[in-house]
Write a structure and sequence with these properties.
The complex is a heterotrimer of chains A (244), B (328) and C (291).
Chain A (H helix, E strand, L loop, with lengths): L4 E10 L2 E11 L4 E5 L6 H9 L6 E6 L2 E2 L5 H7 L1 E4 L11 H13 L10 H13 L15 H14 L4 E5 L7 H16 L3 E5 L3 H7 L2 E6 L2 E6 L1 H4 L3 H8 L2
Parallel strand pairs in A: 3-8, 3-9, 6-7, 7-8
Antiparallel strand pairs in A: 1-2, 1-4, 4-5, 9-10
Helix pairs in contact in A: 3-4, 3-5, 4-5
Chain B lengths: L1 H8 L9 H22 L2 H26 L7 H18 L5 H23 L4 H20 L10 E2 L13 H24 L2 H11 L1 H6 L4 H20 L2 H5 L1 E2 L1 H4 L2 H14 L5 H20 L4 H16 L3 H10 L1
Antiparallel strand pairs in B: 1-2
Helix pairs in contact in B: 1-16, 2-7, 3-7, 3-10, 3-13, 3-14, 4-5, 4-6, 4-10, 5-10, 8-10, 13-14, 13-15, 13-16, 14-15, 14-16
Chain C lengths: L2 H33 L7 H17 L5 H28 L5 H23 L14 E4 L2 E4 H23 L1 H11 L1 H6 L4 H26 L7 H15 L4 H22 L4 H15 L8
The chains are: A alpha/beta (244), B mainly alpha (328), C mainly alpha (291).
């Protein structure tokens, strides 16, 4: 079975600073991959390069059999690659339902397979909001939301693009124990529906509960990749990240 | 009353009139306004009303790129003047062309320049686009001032036909009617955009461009569309100008007043809806005209600038926005 | 020497001197846009204000225009501080900068221009000073005093500000606030206060630039708009946040404009800066020495 996402020898520099070097990553369809590493190790930069928000100078990104290096971010989203942002970035002047309308109009409908329109879109928005327990606030504005609700909206918006691969970038940061469980359950449910998920997190409990495979990024390089139980016992991983 | 205004200005897709019905309402309103102006019987009424309607078009054009999409275009004078000078060129080469055709050509010329500028600068931060449009205004003015065919710095004279085609009466009445027609098209376009997926795309770009791009919105393409529409309508608003003033020179054609008014009126009236530029143009334009005939100094020109700064600081959502807030 | 080579050399030299002048004109924006990320498109209006202040000092009180500018430096600094405070409260704090912030400065630009027209009319104004005419002749090179003095003013101002930025605590804090406000807070410096100081300085440079401007050419209220293109072309070409880059860009633009004016005619000068701006944005938006 060929990989859904294949990152080959990816390198990214910002002026004199090397953010990523020689990163190799493969994600199989339906897999649950965890990605961990210290702050500043390049996790978000990697996500940005995979999704097209940033352009990598070296290496290439291959998604669903297509090399996507020359594609813009919105083109990659249309191919089925979706991400949530580490700091939620809602559309502030639009209601929650309208926030979800955007990816439906521009990612899902643009694929041309089955276009939703009119009332069907509204229904789909409410349905998606229901999956994150926000249906009752469908017509409110993002500024009325709490932190965790914004995180959930962020995830819901990524889900609204009907992705094959979802990258959840630190969606649990700063949340309470129960809230972490809520997001965790959501992501596992999503994976159960067939969506491949990459979870980037610092909360080890969630990472261990979620990941089938675990990769570790330190100072722009991948230093481990494999079975979560083995990775967390790896000496270099412990030294660089876990055993602080 | 409050909820009526809020609803008229709102974006609820299910409620309100369909696009065709809205155009019908606008046409009826335009007809009524034209009839009323004719009934007043004074040429001055036509001249004054023309200016206000022209500003509705300019403000609406600016707002498509500014209010809806969040990109500030300071080069209004460039697009407006491209339309005006395109008419001057056509007047010298093909004076038999009907005015509406000249208007369309002027709009296309301006839209192309907009596309060109946008293509070069819209991939960068929004402020670079704004700065580029500011510089564009100076450059287009320089080019036209150096172009002898359209009179250069000395200006060009355009003979206004005596009689209005089709409707009879003075030519100024025809100019006003044409401008009213353009206004109907502009407002209908703005409202149709608001309620369409294009409008949602614009709003997403305005609110958070990176998130929009990540959600599948083709941001560059949409920004180019907005720029072309905006520039095109500005050019169309400027196209009848030579016939209106009969003498056009760069100093007046590129007057900063057009730019400030085109930005101030939507900011004062409200940028989130098609109704904002209308409210802004009527109120500010009316106030300016009143001051011009009573105080007769350059003070009337200051009004737009001062009000704009005041509103931008104190009431950024504009007059229409104030109504919408009350409704919530 | 051959006449056209002579012409060429003098055009280049004039351009060099002009570049020094452009540097002092642009340094205010190099601070406000390059370091503080505030797009103050009204800067040319403040410069013009400086020109008219120098004009009043010169014609009404008989003082040297540069002296008039120096006397008014604190007033301009204060004006800058007040303007930043308004901008901060109205826009930066609400995090709603782009469209409304830009419109705010555009409004100020417009109000200033109309205000100047109402106060002084549209006639050209100039100053009387011993260096307003005449040349310093070095062999075949003619150095017009009216270009040389502003050039020297520019050098002094830019050098002074560069030293301020790198040698004083406040100056280094200004550079820091451009890069990382969070770290600055940890250093127990208040970012808003630092920005206020920097913005005040930006306005203060406009006083000097205004005096330089009215020495170089007669002024009238609408010439401010020509300078917007030049200033931003220079700041973008030089690279935001780099003073040396800005100076190089200023001199480059000065020389290109001077050559264009000499060989194609002066009415094309405003188009040059726009061309430079567009090309820079299209090809290398970070500029020559940009961060």
């Amino acid at each position: 079975m060929s990989a859904l996402l294949h990152v080959q020898r990816l390198g990214k520099r910002f002026g004199g600073f090397t953010a990523l070097q020689d990163v190799e990553l493969e994600v199989q369809p339906g897999e649950r991959l965890g990605l961990i590493g210290p702050n500043g190790s390049g996790k978000s930069t990697l996500v940005n390069c995979i999704c097209g928000t940033l352009r990598n100078e070296q290496g290439s990104v291959n998604f669903g059999g297509t090399t996507v290096d020359s594609l813009t971010a919105h083109e990659r989203t249309r191919l089925g690659l979706a991400r949530s942002f580490q700091l939620p970035r809602p559309f502030g002047s639009l209601s929650l339902a309208e926030n979800l309308r955007i990816p439906i109009l521009y990612a899902v409908n643009a694929r041309g397979e089955r276009k939703l329109s009119g009332a069907a879109i509204e229904t789909r928005c409410i349905e998606l909001l229901g999956q994150v327990n926000l249906a009752d606030k469908a017509h409110r504005l993002p500024r009325d939301l709490t932190q965790i609700e914004m995180r959930k909206l962020e995830l819901a918006r990524a889900m609204a693009a009907d992705p094959k691969l979802l990258i959840a970038d630190e969606s649990m940061a700063g949340l309470s124990h129960a809230e972490v469980d809520e997001i965790l359950a959501l992501l596992i449910r999503l994976n159960g529906q067939g969506v491949t998920v990459i979870m980037i997190e610092h909360i080890m409990r969630a990472v261990m509960a979620f990941s089938q495979r675990l990769a570790v990024l330190v100072a722009g390089r991948k230093i481990a990749d494999g079975n979560p139980k083995d990775v967390v016992r790896d000496a270099e991983v412990v030294r660089a990240y876990l055993g602080e | 009353m409050v909820s009526l205004v809020a609803k008229a200005a709102g974006r609820e897709t299910a409620a309100g009139l369909g696009n065709v019905a809205f155009i019908g309402v606008l046409i009826v309103a335009a007809g009524a306004i034209f009839g009323a102006t004719r009934w007043i019987g004074n040429d001055y009424a036509f001249f004054a009303a023309y200016v206000v309607v022209q500003y509705i078009v300019l403000g609406t054009a600016w707002n498509i790129l500014g209010g809806y999409t969040g990109y500030v275009n300071f080069g209004i004078t460039a697009f407006f003047a491209i339309g005006a000078y395109s008419t001057v060129v056509l007047y010298k080469l093909t004076p038999w062309l009907p005015l509406p055709v000249m208007i369309v050509i002027g709009g296309v010329m301006a839209a192309l320049v907009g596309l060109g500028t946008g293509y070069l600068t819209l991939r960068l931060r929004g402020v670079f686009f704004s700065i580029a449009t500011l510089a564009l205004a100076i450059v287009v003015q320089t080019l036209i001032t150096n172009w002898d065919f359209v009179g250069g710095a000395r200006g060009a004279y355009v003979l206004r036909p005596k009689m209005a085609p089709l409707i009879g009466g003075g030519y100024i009445e025809y100019l006003f009617l044409v401008m009213l027609g353009l206004c109907v098209v502009a407002l209908a376009t703005a409202r149709a955009i608001e309620r369409s997926s294009l409008g949602f795309g614009f709003a997403a770009i305005r609110d958070d461009e990176a998130a929009a791009e990540a959600s599948g919105v083709p941001t560059l393409k949409l920004k180019l569309v907005a720029t072309a529409l905006s520039g095109g309508f500005m050019g169309m608003a400027g196209a009848p100008l030579p016939y209106y003033v009969t003498y056009l020179d760069p100093a007046s054609g590129f007057s900063l007043n057009y730019a400030v008014n085109a930005i101030a009126m939507p900011l004062i009236g409200g940028t989130s809806s098609w109704l904002g530029p209308v409210v802004g143009a009527v109120l500010v334009g009316g106030l300016q005209e009143y001051l011009r005939v009573t105080i007769a100094s350059a003070i009337n020109v200051l009004v737009a600038g001062v009000l704009m700064v005041a509103f931008v600081i104190l009431a950024p959502q504009g007059i229409v926005g104030l109504f919408q807030r009350k409704k919530r | 020497m051959d006449a056209s080579a002579d012409l060429l050399i003098n055009a280049v030299v004039s351009g060099l001197l002009l570049g020094g002048f452009y540097a002092v004109v642009s340094i205010g924006v190099a601070i406000s846009f390059g370091l503080l990320d505030i797009v103050n498109i009204a800067h040319p209006a403040v410069i013009l204000l400086g020109s008219y202040v120098a004009f009043i000092g010169n014609t009404v009180f008989g003082i040297d225009p540069i002296l008039a500018a120096v006397i008014m430096l604190p007033a301009f600094y204060f004006l800058g501080v007040v303007t930043y405070q308004i901008y901060y409260v109205a826009f930066e704090r609400r995090d709603d900068q782009s469209i409304r912030g830009l419109s705010f400065f555009f409004g100020i630009l417009f109000i200033a221009e109309v205000g100047l027209i109402l106060a002084f009319g549209v006639d050209y104004r100039s100053v009387q000073a011993w260096y307003a005419q005449g040349n310093l002749d070095l062999l075949v090179i003619e150095l017009p005093w009216r270009l040389l003095v502003p050039f020297l003013l520019g050098l002094v101002t830019v050098a002074g500000l560069q030293m301020f930025l790198s040698r004083t605590f406040v100056g280094r804090a200004v550079q820091a606030v451009a890069q990382d406000q969070g770290a600055l807070r940890l250093m127990a410096a208040n970012p808003a206060r630092i920005k206020r100081i920097a913005f005040g300085l930006s306005f203060a440079t406009a006083a000097v630039a205004g005096a330089a401007l009215i020495i170089i050419q007669p002024v009238e209220p609408s010439i401010g708009r020509e300078y917007i293109g030049r200033i931003f072309a220079i700041c973008v070409l030089g690279g935001l946040g780099s003073f040396p880059g800005m100076v190089i860009a200023a001199v480059t633009l000065g020389i290109v404009e001077s050559l264009t004016a000499t060989f194609f005619g002066p009415s094309w000068a405003p188009a040059v800066s726009f061309g430079v701006l567009l090309v820079t944005l299209a090809v290398r938006p970070n500029g020559i020495l940009g961060r």
